Amino acid sequence: MQSSKTQTLTTHYHIQKKRRAEFxxxxxxxxxxxxxxxxxxxVPTARGMKTGVYMGWDGDRPTRCLDxxxxxxxxxxxxxxxxxxxxxxxxxxxxxxxxEVDGVRYDWKPWDAVHIPSWSxxxxxxxxxxxxxxxSYSSEPTLWxxxxxxxxxxxxxxFASLPPRPKVSGGIPGNDPYSRRLRRVNQETKKRxxxxxxxxxxxxxxxxTPRGTRTKFLNDRAIGNQASGLTQVMIQFAPGKTxxxxxxxxxxxxxxxxxxxxSFMGIAPDKGQHYRWKxxxxxxxxxxxxxxxxxxxxxxxxxxxxxxxxxxxLETMRTLMxxxxxxxxxxxxxxxxxxxxxxxxxxxxxPGE
Length: 353
Description:
- By secondary structure, this protein is an alpha+beta fold.
- It is 16% helix and 34% strand.
- It contains five helices and 24 strands.
- The longest helix is centred in the first third of the chain and has 19 residues, at 12-30.
- It is globular.
């Protein structure tokens, strides 16, 4: 039998070099530092709610790590129920509604947060008299990159009639590699499926930091969430105040909850550009850029919700790039305890309270 060979006139060196250049050129076309709320169109979807894409494959700005979408549920509406191989975190922007996760209903109000674990059946509803709006951030682009992005929609079927999450074999005794893997995967799956789902905003205390802001976790493993590294933090800026100047390897996305201001971003602490933003915009901080956020309102506070994938992609980057310095902060922009005590913080209350 005559053997066959794949013939190419181009070496792997030239193929890889061309492929890398094309990827970066295409990637840079999609990058945008501030996505304006007015540039994100809400359109009706087959799920029974309106959706718009700030960042993600299903809009005009594809991403590789996480995505950012906005959703609106009309009064009296109930979406279809679906599940997917990735997980997501939600931030409730306006109105009130509910989210059902694996048959359990969670009622929410503005500034609450919800975690949707992977493979959990979920749907949303609105029993109020005005539209309910929320943001969602998911790890779908990461799984898409790995060829593991799967989604199943079951229409309006009741949860009791739907199949359970994928089964996982229990651990078995033994110290061989296979036994150890079974136990490790089983234990991790149990942990992931037992994490916090709903975080009412009032449940966490907001605390002042040396960075010049007050913050509180909305989604994070520190408060019991078991996400794919997705984390949300509410950041409160006092009138006319700013945050310390810093940089880190992974992206950080910030949704403007209220107020207006600007952000500095640059390749050096003294070399960059300023970008203005307002309520409803999304700020995209690219990797390893020096950045600093400013509240430009001398009278009123502003709030940003920061999202990134700290416990997965950022920690992986740390191991890959060690011993490089992976978090840098301009120490002269940090505040002392005395300076912090002199800030007059506005009351920490959400809309309607």
